[in-house]
Write a structure and sequence with these properties.
3 domains; single chain; Rossmann fold; about 550 residues; 18 helices
Length: about 550
C-alpha cells in the first residue's frame, strides 16, 4: 500500500471531525500537509463541528430477532479493568499504611509524637511495595484471578520490601530508633491483611469474569476473510479482554457469509447504530483495509455518533509503522480512529463531581426551591413539577424534572411547539423562572438521586423539539453525536450565550458546535469552570422566554 494513501485517509478523517490521537499518529505531518496545502492539518487537529456527512438518522432501522436477543444479553454495563487495577493498588497502599500506623499507635507512641523516621518509613515502605507489585505483574486481571500466583508474588514482594527497609535502617545507623516489636508485628499483620484481601479479591474477580463484566465488548465491522483472520489472531492469544459480540456488514452473503469463525452476522451497518443504542458495547473493530478509503469513510460517517472506541484493524496491512503508532490488544495492532469521550477513571471523576458538587448545590438551593415551589402553587392550579421525556446518554429516553412554568392545560410534554416571547401558555411566575433558569433547579434530583443527568453536559432536548419546523436530528448533521456523553443541567453552549429558544437552524448549529467542543475537551476543571460561570451567564435573559 502506498504511503500517500494513508495520509489522504488520515486527512479526511481529521477534516470530518474524527479524533486521531497524536501519540499514535500514523502519518507524519509532512504527508498530511502535502494533502491539504491550503490549510495545514496535523494529527493534533480536532475539528469540533462535523460536516454534513455525519448526519444521524432520526429513525433507526429495526433489528433482527437474533440481534435483539444479543443486544438484550449485553444490556448491562461492564466493569473497567483499568479502574479495577487502580482500586486494588489503592487498597494495597491503604492496608500497608494503616497496619503500620495502627501498630505504631498501639505499641510505640501516639500520633502526636510520631518521630520523623516513622513518618518516612511507613509511607515509603508502602510506595516501594506498590511499585514492586506492579513490576511483578500482580495488578493484571489474569494475575488477580489466581490465588496461588498472587500469594507467591505477594510474599516475594513483601520480603523484598522489608529486606530493603532493613538494609536502609542498617546503613543509616537508625537501628536503635525503630522498635523491633513494631517492625516484626507490621511484617506479620501487614502480610496477613494483604493475603486475606487478595483471596477475597480473587473470588470477586473470578465471579465478575464468569459473568463477562471484565470484558471489552467488541463488534466486528466487515466480514469475510479479513474478519476471520482477525478473529483467529485474537483467539490464538488466549487470555485477553476482548469479547466479540457479533459481525455487522452491508455486503451480501457471497462476499460476507452469515457466519465467520463461528460468529454470526447480525445485520447491516445502519442496524449496527441501532444495536449500539441498545447494547452496552465498548469497541468497534473495522476490518476493511486502509486502501478501501471511500468505504472506510462511509462506515465512519454512520458509526461516529456512538459512544465507543473505534479501531481500524492493521494486522494484515503490509506497511508497518513504529510501535507507538498503534494501540495493541495483546500483539494485534490497531489504528485508533475515535475514542470514547469519558472512560475508565474519567467516569469515576465525573460521577464524584456530579454527586459531591451537585449535592452541595442542592443543599444551598433548597430554600430557593421551596420559595419557587410555593410561588408556582399560588400562581396557577396544577402540579408544582413538570416531567418531560428527553434524550439522554446514547439516545436513551430519560425523564427530567422542572418547575411547571405553563398553565396545566397548555403544557407540551413533547416540546412540539417551542416557547416564544410573550407566549400565552406561560404563567406569570413561569416567565420569571424561565428567564432566570430557576425552573431547571429540580433537575438536581436527576443528577444526585437518579444519575441520568450530569451537572455539566449538552442540554437534553425533548424528543419532538424542532427548529424551522424540522426535528433537531434532521436539521444539524452529527446532532446525535452530542449524546456520546451524559446530558447536563448547564453546559459550554449555555455559558456562551446559546441557551433558551432554538427556533432557527443557525442557533441549533451553534449550540451543537459548542456541545461537541465540550465533549472533545472535557475535564473536571472544565466542568468546574462552567459551573462557576453559570450563575453569571444566567443573569442574561436573552433567548430565554
Amino acid at each position: 500500500m502506498r504511503l500517500p494513501q494513508i495520509g489522504k485517509l488520515q486527512c479526511k478523517l481529521v477534516s470530518l471531525g474524527v479524533r486521531i490521537p497524536a501519540r499514535r499518529n500514523c502519518v507524519n505531518e509532512a504527508i498530511m500537509n502535502q494533502q491539504v496545502p491550503e490549510k495545514k492539518i496535523t494529527a493534533e487537529t480536532v475539528v469540533t463541528s462535523p460536516p454534513p456527512a455525519f448526519q444521524a438518522q432520526s429513525t433507526e432501522p429495526s433489528l433482527s430477532l437474533e440481534a435483539e436477543m444479543a443486544a438484550e444479553a449485553l444490556a448491562g454495563h461492564s466493569i473497567s479493568r483499568v479502574v479495577v487495577a487502580g482500586t486494588v493498588r489503592l487498597i494495597d497502599l491503604a492496608l500497608v499504611l494503616v497496619t503500620g500506623l495502627a501498630i505504631h499507635l498501639l505499641y510505640v507512641e501516639s500520633a502526636a509524637t510520631l518521630a520523623w523516621w516513622y513518618v518516612a518509613a511507613i509511607p515509603g515502605t508502602a510506595l516501594v511495595f506498590i511499585t514492586t507489585m506492579q513490576l511483578a505483574g500482580a495488578y493484571s486481571i489474569p494475575a488477580m484471578r489466581r490465588v496461588g500466583f498472587q500469594t507467591g508474588r505477594l510474599l516475594a514482594c513483601w520480603l523484598l520490601v522489608f529486606g530493603l527497609m532493613t538494609s536502609v535502617v542498617f546503613l543509616a545507623k537508625l537501628g536503635e530508633e525503630f522498635s523491633r516489636v513494631w517492625f516484626a508485628a507490621w511484617f506479620v499483620v501487614g502480610l496477613i491483611a494483604l493475603l486475606v484481601f487478595r483471596m477475597a479479591l480473587a473470588s470477586f474477580v473470578n465471579r465478575w469474569a464468569g459473568e463477562g463484566l471484565l470484558e471489552r465488548r467488541a463488534v466486528i465491522v466487515g466480514g469475510g476473510e479479513r474478519a476471520e483472520a482477525l478473529i483467529r489472531a485474537l483467539e490464538a492469544q488466549g487470555d485477553d479482554d476482548i469479547h466479540i459480540c457479533g459481525i455487522f456488514d452491508d455486503r451480501g452473503d457471497d462476499r460476507s457469509p452469515q457466519s465467520v469463525a463461528g460468529y454470526r452476522k447480525l445485520g447491516t451497518i445502519s442496524e449496527l447504530v441501532a444495536f449500539g443504542r441498545k447494547a452496552k458495547i465498548d469497541l468497534l473493530i473495522v476490518t476493511l483495509p486502509i486502501t478501501a478509503e471511500s468505504r472506510v469513510l462511509q462506515l465512519l460517517k454512520k458509526l461516529w455518533v456512538l459512544p465507543v472506541d473505534i479501531r481500524l484493524a492493521a494486522h494484515t496491512n503490509g506497511l508497518r509503522f513504529r510501535p507507538r503508532t498503534y494501540s495493541f490488544v495483546g500483539r494485534i495492532p490497531f489504528l485508533d480512529v475515535a475514542d470514547k469521550p469519558i472512560a475508565d477513571w474519567d467516569v469515576v471523576a465525573k460521577w464524584l463531581f456530579d454527586h459531591l458538587v451537585g449535592g452541595l448545590i442542592l443543599l444551598l438551593a433548597a430554600p430557593f426551591m421551596l420559595l419557587v415551589a410555593l410561588a408556582v402553587r399560588l400562581d396557577s392550579r396544577g402540579p408544582i413539577l413538570f416531567k418531560q421525556r428527553r434524550y439522554g446518554f446514547n439516545n436513551e429516553l430519560i425523564e427530567v424534572y422542572k418547575f411547571r412554568s405553563m398553565y396545566t392545560e397548555a403544557t407540551d410534554a413533547t416540546a412540539n411547539k417551542l416557547v416564544t416571547r410573550d407566549d400565552p401558555r406561560v404563567t406569570r411566575v413561569g416567565r420569571f423562572i424561565r428567564r432566570t433558569s430557576l425552573d431547571e433547579l429540580p433537575q438536581l434530583f436527576n443528577v444526585v438521586f437518579k444519575g441520568d443527568l450530569s451537572l455539566v453536559g449538552p442540554r437534553p432536548h425533548a424528543v419532538q423539539a424542532k427548529a424551522s419546523e424540522r426535528l433537531y436530528g434532521d436539521v444539524v448533521d452529527g446532532y446525535f453525536a452530542r449524546h456520546r456523553v451524559k446530558p447536563g443541567i448547564t453546559g459550554w453552549a449555555q455559558i456562551n450565550g446559546w441557551r433558551g429558544e432554538t427556533d432557527t437552524e443557525e442557533k441549533l448549529r451553534h449550540r451543537v458546535e459548542h456541545d461537541l467542543y465540550y465533549i472533545e475537551n472535557w475535564s473536571v476543571l472544565f466542568d468546574f469552570y462552567i459551573v462557576l460561570m453559570t450563575p453569571f451567564r444566567m443573569l442574561s435573559s436573552e433567548n430565554a422566554y
